[in-house]
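Each field is set out as follows.
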Amino acid sequence: MTMPVFGTQIEGRAYVRRPSAYALVQNSGGEWALVRTPRGCFLPGGGMEPHETPQQTAERESREECGFVLHSGRVIAQAIQFVYSSEESAYFEKICDFVEAELIHMVAPVEDDHESIWLDLDEALKSLSHESQRWALARAGGRV
């Protein structure tokens, strides 16, 4: 199966391949969880540690970024996203798994510059910074 590819791969640049996982979390009001950072809005999640499953990554990253304690389910979408990180001065080929998840309860987040926000599907789709995340959320929300 071929994964959809988002972003532009710039010729002549070295890309670091980074497996990543993101949580698709919807509250009882039908709103979706996003994380607002100084660099944009994203789904809760991030880079996988060695030997982590996509579910473990989504749970760990969501707890660190938002204080979410999640029960994660199945991977519902996969995509590749090419990005440049000014923070790390590096180009990344993110191999993204998108995981269904349910919010169980909240704890204090670890990352001070991350703010969790809840938006309806249309606002969430407009707000997300990465095209792959917009595509995955549209799928989760029944738009694709």
